[in-house]
Amino acid sequence: MHAQKTPTAVRLLGFSPCATAHLATLLASAPRSGPLYACLHEDSLQEPDIVLADGTSPAALAWLDGMRCPPPALVIGGMARASYTQLSPPFEPDELYACMVKLLAERRRALMLLSARGEPLLAERRRRPRLGPDAGCPSERQPPRDGKVLIVDKGGAFRDHLAGLVGPSRLAIAWTDSAPMAVRLCDETPVSLAMINTAAPGIDPYGLSRDIKAQQGAEKTAVVLLVGRTFNYDSTLAHGAGVRGLLDKPVGDRSLVAMLQRLASLPEMPA
């Protein structure tokens, strides 16, 4: 069934709110016989499988050109660019779906080639374009704080999975189901990354992030929310509480490793 397929993560770059909503609707209405697509929230830390970019947006094109390991990209509108698949508006939905299927096949081939060569899957270090020192955009490419990863969840299963994924000798990972204990751990020991499951009972994720970030020396501690479909993520509240971003559950292993490479002290892992 369509709903049981693993969704293809799509990041939309540079489009107007109206165009973004239109593209999201088209992707959600993709034929049931083909892939399932999920558009990433602007705050999502997940590595996209495919990028759709507005070809008339300099910021979107700068982001694509600046990526060190870009996923397949579809540029909609603007001048033709030899390095990307192009789609000129107006277009029919079937034209969009055909381009997406082609890009997915390209993505699979690229991942298979990396794996065969034993090369690492490199995480993108930033989510917004760097347009130069005078562009007024703060750089996200800052070295992560040294320290452990803290999981705040109702049980330790996710912590165990993460430890098994990266190896116990590569990164220290702690777990708690208590907000006061989480704050205490961040106060007593260096924590590079705190991951809060928004479904954990009795936990206010925004309040906990605010308390963690209030600790002395916690400026570089990244707080990430693990968000389920029923949680109403509020960007304004999240940004005000110091949340770095979100990951949609269930979280794929590739996205977890990429996030740990970006926000914690995990070295690059082989494919």
Automatic annotation (TrEMBL):
Disordered: annotated span: 125-146
Signal peptide extent: 1-21
SUPFAM superfamilies: CheY-like
InterPro entries on file: CheY-like_superfamily, Sig_transdc_resp-reg_receiver
Residues of the Response regulatory domain: 148-264
Keywords: Signal
UniProt protein name: Response regulator
